[in-house]
Amino acid sequence: MNTTVATTDTEGKTWEGGNQPLKASYGKMMMWFFILSDALTFSGFLAAYGFSRFKFIDAWPIADEVFTHIPFFHGNYPMIYVAFMTFVLIMSSVTMVLAVDAGHHLNKKKVTWYMFLTIIGGIIFVGSQAWEWNTFIKGDFGAVQTKGGNILQFVDTDGNRVAVRDFVAITPTEREVHERSKGLWFVDEDALPPYQINDVVTGFEANSNILVRTQTLNEEGHKTVLSRTESLKALKENGKTVVEGANLHVNEYGSPLFADFFFFITGFHGFHVFSGIVLNIIIFFNVVLGTYERRKSYEMVEKVGLYWHFVDLVWVFVFTFFYLV
Amino acid sequence: MADAHKLEIFRGLVKFKSNTQKIWGVLILLSIITAVEVLLGIYKPSWGTNMVLGMKLLNWIFIILTIVKAYYITWDFMHMRDEVPGLRRAVVWTGIFLICYIIFILLQEGGYVFNVYDKGFIKRDF
């Protein structure tokens, strides 16, 4: 360790920094305090999520209905994929701590191997998260947003979800996409949605077995399903636009705040995982090149290990508060 | 410094022979906890919706299990168990105090805003 820490002539002195009450090297201690401050940042975000959720406690989206997909499979599998992601991250935490342990025994071959596995685990996790974002952005069933910004979803009389695209009656419209070459030269807009609110109303009237489901939760924690007449009334009086998928402005699953916090918190965490992978790769090459072998200390592996475990630690909380509670 | 690992978990109930063995043991524990969480999350048993101290019983279970997981990640994977009490307290107590504080403030405020909406002072259901 002495080779990594500059020792001055203050060693053994009570004052002038010669005393080391925490018995940890400078780098490790500062990594701990960085982790502490980062933990406070994350808990600030999660507490803000809790604030918004408590604000709309009777209308918050149910996570089990939002994250239901697995790559390459059709059907409804809530939680499975995110459980897999959690397991991948815990597993890569284990290989990291095994790398640290091998470092204590100055076993270069084992450290190299375990660091490599850790990096692979991290890449799988980030890839899974990208897929999860993609699915969330694309959306599932579609919904109608009301003038007040609330979401109306559609179910059949048995309570199963119905996709807007399955019953909508597409009628020709005269509305064209506004491009810079056609109107005001400094204004343009995104592509128009494939169908308008009127198409949804017409399609809804033609299918008598479809009902509207509001975002309000009832006593049992299920979303409220309106009767047929109430559904028509809500759709005609309040319906404003068709929403498919989620972004920072609209969210077909319910409150847009849910999507905002999902993107922000999992994005911030994903960025941490990404930077953790980069740090791990740098340290991996140092291990391969024998830097720590010559230094006779693998403490750098231990420091990035602390960071990597922290990323895992944060995910445990994100998992609970976004997917479980 | 390297060999000073404490190899007991559950207050000495389970002792491991080596650090590597302890790592695998903790992995098994964390996997079991995660599996329990996922199963409860998928099946949502009906007893879980009973309210205990203002929150659903199931949510209490999730949060407590999460804190248990966080404890083992910090104590065994990050080797907090092997650090001196001074460093441990400086990091853990600071974090826990400030996190509890911000959670209390923001959730309290969120509940208040909900009441303002709920009593109809502001209309948003249209």
From TrEMBL, chain A:
Residues 1-325 form the Heme-copper oxidase subunit III family profile domain. Its main location: membrane. Keywords: Cell membrane, Membrane, Transmembrane, Transmembrane helix. InterPro entries: Cyt_c/ubiquinol_Oxase_su3, Cyt_c_oxidase-like_su3, Cyt_c_oxidase_su3-like_sf, Cyt_c_oxidase_su3_a-hlx. It comes from the Bacteria. This is Cytochrome c oxidase subunit 3. The keyword Cell membrane applies. It is found in: Cell membrane. PANTHER family: CYTOCHROME BO(3) UBIQUINOL OXIDASE SUBUNIT 3, CYTOCHROME C OXIDASE SUBUNIT III. It comes from Olleya sediminilitoris. The chain crosses the membrane at residues 30-51, 79-99, 111-131, 261-292, 304-324. Belongs to the cytochrome c oxidase subunit 3 family. It is a multi-pass membrane protein. The keyword Ligase does not apply.
Automatic annotation (TrEMBL), chain B:
It holds the Pfam family COX4_pro. The chain crosses the membrane at residues 23-43, 58-78, 90-107. It is a multi-pass membrane protein. Keywords: Cell membrane, Membrane, Transmembrane, Transmembrane helix. It is found in: Cell membrane. Its main location: membrane. This is Cytochrome C oxidase subunit IV family protein. It comes from Olleya sediminilitoris.
